[in-house]
Specification:
Helix content: 10-25%
Radius of gyration: 21 Å
Distance between the termini: 60 Å
CATH class of the largest domain: Alpha Beta
Strand content: 35-45%
CATH topology of the largest domain: Outer Surface Protein A, domain 3
Order of helices and strands: HEEEEEEHEEEEEEHE
Number of helices: 3
Number of strands: 13
Structural class: alpha+beta
Number of domains: 2
Largest sheet: 4 strands, antiparallel
Length: 177
């Protein structure tokens, strides 16, 4: 049985969890999110805890879905109460970013500016050379950060590019004479 699936999800004050037949709805101050309930998995709310139960542990797929369902609900609870954020750092001469409405305007050393349209529910904030991507959905925040990083990943010789804050980039030694 999944060890993650057995753990109860604690529900903070101000968050409302509703269990339906095929999904779990989480409503908080920031947003309302819904995650699916897979086959053979049931949920119940007791006080400020949500527990998931699995009726059929015979198949590997059901065991995997048990842990997945618990993780999705836990991420939704955190998302609607606190939110998620990822920080990206721009390293390089002339590398800049600015937010213009729902677009992120990036100058990454190309001959043209890169305009990234931010999806609904995602916000960006720029301070000096740090871009902060935030939102309520953990998966979307990570996906947007990865797409922005993919425009100019850090190169291994000087380390120029877009990287996560705290990311270590192994640098290589250049040519030797």
């Amino acid at each position: 049985m999944s060890r993650i699936g057995k753990q109860p999800v604690s529900i903070p004050a101000g968050v409302e969890v509703t269990v339906k037949a095929d999904s779990i709805s989480v409503k908080g101050a920031n947003a309302t999110m819904e995650s699916p309930l897979f086959a053979n998995i049931s949920a119940k709310v007791e006080g400020n805890r949500l527990t998931l139960e699995c009726s059929d542990l015979g198949t590997k797929k059901t065991k995997a879905n048990f842990g997945l369902a618990r993780s999705l609900v836990a991420n939704n609870v955190i998302g609607v109460s606190k939110g998620f954020s990822k920080d990206l750092e721009l390293r390089g001469v002339g590398y800049r970013a600015k937010v213009q409405g729902k677009n992120l305007d990036l100058s990454l050393g190309f001959s043209h500016p890169v305009i990234y349209a931010l999806p609904d529910g995602i916000e960006a904030k720029v301070e000096k050379s740090i871009i902060t991507i935030s939102g309520v959905d953990k998966q979307r925040v990570g996906q947007v950060a990865a797409e922005i990083r993919a425009y100019r990943p850090p190169e291994p010789y000087k380390g120029k590019g877009v990287r996560y804050v705290g990311e270590h980039v192994a640098t290589k030694e250049g040519k030797r004479a």
